[in-house]
Specification:
This protein is of the alpha/beta class. Helix content is about 35%, strand content about 15%. Strands 5-4-3-2-1-6-7 form a 7-stranded parallel β-sheet, sandwiched between helices. The protein starts with 6 loop residues before the first strand and ends with a strand.
């Protein structure tokens, strides 16, 4: 690869390619949640940390903190929209722990003094609506994956994004086959470059 990426988005799928030098020299590096355990072949740099805001995985980020170096992070994004406070109270009463929002606590733990952003419901819905124009779904989708949301988000800021670790599989309420089709279109348009 001849061009130095301006931004690399690293998904949580398996990556066998040695990318440490490329990643550590990149101005913007986006990682998600536990950052795929930060294996050495994927470098140490992370400028933008995207975290789930709800459910047990979000809770685990508070009780079992990340072990990655946090000094290079400049922005923390919570991928769940701001919660409805009344519904949060009801979820606590009926013990629906998977619906409880931990976004503010995550910002407090990982984002003090940093730029903080929550994705809006409108943004997530607009991405989902576009994906649904690409074909039928296998399961009724709840929302796009964090990785696809990040691609859409950063393509508003950069003309091209580089990605690695996108396996397009996991929770069945993400429309993986449509996300894969969407990213394939972006690769064809030279807006997305796959590194692995």
């Amino acid at each position: 690869m001849n061009e130095q990426p301006e931004i690399i988005i690293i998904g949580n799928g398996p990556i066998n390619t040695e990318l440490a030098e490329l990643i550590d020299c990149c101005p913007r590096v986006v990682r998600f949640n536990r950052c795929a355990a930060m294996p050495t072949h994927l470098g140490r740099r992370c400028t933008d940390l995207w975290l789930l805001g709800r459910g047990r995985q979000a809770q685990s980020l508070l009780t079992d903190p990340l072990v990655m170096p946090l000094e290079g992070i400049s922005k923390v994004v919570v991928t769940d929209p701001a919660p409805n406070l009344l519904m949060q109270h009801i979820f606590k009463l009926i013990r629906r722990h998977g619906r409880l929002d931990h976004g503010d606590a995550l910002f407090n733990k990982y984002g003090k003094g940093l730029q903080q952003e929550r994705l809006t419901q409108q943004f997530r819905q607009s991405v989902l609506e576009y994906l649904l124009t690409l074909g039928p779904t296998i399961h009724k989708p709840y929302c796009p994956s964090s990785g696809t949301l990040a691609i859409v988000h950063y393509l508003k800021l950069f003309s091209k994004v580089h990605i690695a670790g996108f396996g397009f599989q996991g929770w069945k309420r993400h429309p993986w086959h449509l996300e894969k089709r969407y990213v394939s279109e972006l690769i064809h348009e030279n807006k997305v470059i796959m590194l692995d």
